[in-house]
Amino acid sequence: MAFSSAAIVFISSLVFSLLPPAYPGELFVDHRNVSVPKSDVNLLEFPLNLEYLEAEFFLYGALGYGLDKVDPSLTMGGPSPIGAKKANLDPFTRDVILQFALQEVGHLKAIKKTVKGFPRPQLDLSASSFAKLMDHAFKKPLVPPFDPYANSINYLIASYVIPYVGLTGYVGANPKLQGAISKRLVAGLLGVESGQDAVIRGLLYERAVEKVHPYEVTVAEFTNRISHLRNRLGHAGLKDEGLIVPKILGAEGKISGNVLAGDKFSVSYDRTPEEILRIVYGSGNESVPGGFYPKGGNGRIARSYLHSANRYT
């Protein structure tokens, strides 16, 4: 399984390169007496928006239920997701997705062990939410509407949408963090998010030229369309690449296969919280919620943009 080796190398290099030195700074002591700089708190809490999304999507996909049953305390009273359900997965894919699901539960715990966190935001994980995203990616309605829960290949394509966004967010956050505890946490989270993305891309790359029924569109084209959409919504240039790219965008400009996305040096792209909100809202605007977050994200960073928008409406 070639993709597993690539994932291991990728994760290892990221973790070792991002292990932090200690930095001085004004300390904030949270509810569990873990000291992190005040400036780090919002940057550590913001990713909970993505971690909630991943946890619920993977839990429901594999098990047919989510955090409300697995660990209600992690939701902090936030509303249950809309439209999430068990996917029609083959045994191997279900096993992989269940591993991802439980990893995401661990991520929520790790972040909340370090900072207080916030309640689960309202999530829309309905088939129609994913269908709208795919229609947006293809710039036309797909017939029938795309259903992420219909089968394993659809679910893997839908999964392609999610971990990579969180990965780029962690890459973007790391240089802004001041504390050693903060940097170590983000490096650890980034390692596993990168691994999840690598596994998803590897599984899809194996079937890159296979056509997705009934659309007569290849798996690779689905990934390219999704990546192009995220680039458009993010408004920050090229930070996303599909599974097959022009050679100039491949590793060392010499290959079209693109099982792992990276810049011209094969280094992971970064994104800011604003870019992430533009993408996951599906609106291209960090102040206009929608997509997977019909009421917007939670936490100080996400809410600050919603409050700013409300002041002018």
Automatic annotation (TrEMBL):
Signal among keywords: yes
Keyword terms: Signal
Protein name as it appears in the record: Desiccation-related protein PCC13-62
Gene from which this protein is expressed: LOC18603700
Endpoints of the signal sequence: 1-24
Cross-referenced InterPro entries: Pigment-catalase-like
